[in-house]
Amino acid sequence: MIESIIEYFANISSAHRTIILVGGLTIFSLIESAVPLFSLNYRRWKHGGINVFFTITTILVNFFMAFLLVKTSDWVVAQEIGILQWIDTPLWLFLIIGLLLMDLLGAYTAHWVEHHVTWMWKFHVIHHSDQHIDATSANRHHPGESVIRFAFTILATIIVGAPMWLVFLYQSMSVVLSQFNHANIILPDAIDKILNKIICTPNMHNVHHHYRQPYSDTNYGNIFSFWDRIFSTYIEVDNNKLKYGLDTHMDKPETNNIITMLLSPFRPYRQRIDYAEEEQL
Ligand SMILES: [Zn+2]
Question: What is the pTM assigned to this prediction?
Answer without folding.
Answer: 0.91
